[in-house]
Specification:
By secondary structure, the chain is an alpha/beta fold. The protein folds into three domains: 117 residues, Orthogonal Bundle (N-utilizing Substance Protein B Homolog, Chain A); 56 residues, Alpha-Beta Plaits, CATH 3.30.70; 190 residues, Rossmann fold, CATH 3.40.50. Helices cover 45% and strands 16% of the residues. It is built from 19 helices and eleven strands. The strands form two sheets. The chain has a seven-stranded mixed β-sheet with strand order 7-6-5-8-9-11-10, with helices on both faces. The chain has a four-stranded antiparallel β-sheet with strand order 2-3-1-4, covered by helices on one side. Helix 1 packs parallel to helix 3, helix 12 packs across helix 13 and helix 17 packs across helix 18. The radius of gyration is 23 Å and the shape is globular. The model has no long low-confidence stretch (mean pLDDT 96).
């Protein structure tokens, strides 16, 4: 629980901001992170504590939407009165004293706690997930593993930094941040990771602006290392996005060799260029995938290919709690098809004796090891062997759920 909540008096303008945010997220399908960014700019006078309250309360109610709506006995689409009822459930369960505002009249505190105890015996309410995701998780992972995993995916994620070793070391960065009263811990088995002891806005620090670190979950940091890159290689990051893993590859390659960062969304690659500049990275070339020509030009030419594949994102629900309400079963069918197509096509860029990593931020075998098995049985996959794979579950690691497989091309 947020340290301020116990002693907190609810402030009207902060609560209004939360209700406005929830309206956009629940009723207009807006992305929670974008909505919260906007909300935090609403009032210049808000301090860190106020902004923390707005962000964390909004995320909390998004995360537990199904549970709170059930307790409050409200149904979508939620009008403002419904949202205030859900807010009252949130506050009551957190032990926050409700002020005597009209929105909170007749809030049945005892009934709320009773309903919470009842519903906590049923996983789909307790963990606040749609029926179909609950069924799917149990089917693919088994009841016990799924129960543990979905509970872990509902916990608030830690803030993890990845040290940019082109500019500094883990030890030096830890000292720089300590002088700013930001305390961090090393993370076992994660070469370049620092974990914040308390959440704080690290983006406003001089160290961030100077490119000493990026914010990247510990599990995600293992992907670039898994690819086994060396300085001087030609490496393709085929689904680079805004380039978190691309930048990590660049530092592992000591800025030597060539990284070709590709994505079907050209605007994401613009963001990568901006980040590369800040990171002092100059061995990245961006190429938007506007047609299959871009891929075909590279057939047989890459020492390493990273496919950080589009996926359901079920492994990163802690970070994007609104995605469980946006996901649809038919999207999952489509994405599995896309994953296989990408593997089939992009794997052809790997040269003989080269290596490929297929990675997702999902915990479902149907998006992970089953895709790799299917690929290896296919015409394009018959020259590849599976060197090793790694399944990272949130309940065992404490970080995001991830999957990565290292394949080698043997001609």
């Amino acid at each position: 629980m947020h340290p301020y909540l116990k002693i907190m008096r609810l402030h009207r303008n902060l609560c209004f901001a939360v209700i406005d945010g929830l309206t956009l997220i629940f009723n207009e399908g807006k992305y929670a992170d974008k909505v919260i960014q906007q909300l935090l700019k609403r009032d210049k006078r808000w301090g860190a504590r106020d902004r923390g309250f707005v962000a964390e309360t909004t995320y909390d109610i998004v995360r537990w939407k199904r549970l709170y709506a059930e307790i409050a006995e409200v149904k979508a689409p939620y009008d403002r009165e419904n949202l205030w009822r859900m807010f009252a459930v949130w506050a009551t369960l957190k032990g926050i004293k409700l002020p005597d505002w009209k929105y909170f009249e007749n809030t049945p505190a005892r009934k709320i706690k009773g309903r919470y105890d009842e519903l906590s015996k049923i996983r789909k309410f307790k963990e606040s997930i749609p029926d179909w995701i609950d069924d799917l998780g149990e089917k693919e992972l088994g009841e016990e593993t799924w129960t543990n995993e979905i509970a872990a995916l509902n916990k608030q994620a830690d803030v993890i930094l990845r040290v940019n070793t082109l500019k500094t070391t883990k030890e030096k960065l830890q000292t720089i941040l300590f002088d700013l009263e930001i305390e961090t811990d090393f993370v076992a088995n994660h070469e370049d990771a620092l974990k914040l002891k308390e959440r704080t806005n690290v983006f406003s620090t001089e160290a961030f602006k100077s490119g000493f670190f990026e914010v990247q979950d510990a599990s995600s940091q293992l992907v670039a290392e898994f690819l086994d890159v060396q300085p001087g290689m030609r490496v393709v990051d085929a689904c680079a996005g805004a380039g978190g893993k691309t930048l990590h590859l660049a530092s592992l390659m000591e800025n030597k060799g060539q990284i070709i960062a590709m994505d079907i969304y050209g605007n994401k690659l613009h963001e990568l260029k901006r980040r590369a500049k800040r990171n002092g990275v100059h061995n990245i070339e961006t190429r938007p995938i506007e047609s299959t020509k871009v891929i075909k030009k590279l057939y047989g030419k890459a020492d390493r290919v990273l496919i950080d594949s589009p996926c359901s994102g079920l492994g990163v629900l802690r970070r994007n709690p609104d995605s469980k309400w946006k996901l649809q079963p038919n999207f999952l069918d489509k994405i599995r098809k896309t994953q296989q197509e990408i593997l089939q096509q992009y794997s052809r860029m790997v040269k003989a004796d080269g290596k490929l990593v297929y990675a997702t931020c999902s915990v479902l075998p149907s998006e992970n090891q089953n895709q790799v098995k299917e690929f290896l049985k296919s015409e394009n996959g018959k020259n590849f062997i599976l060197v090793k794979d790694k399944k990272i579950s949130a309940h065992k690691s404490g970080f995001d759920g991830f999957y990565m497989a290292l394949l080698e091309r043997k001609d």
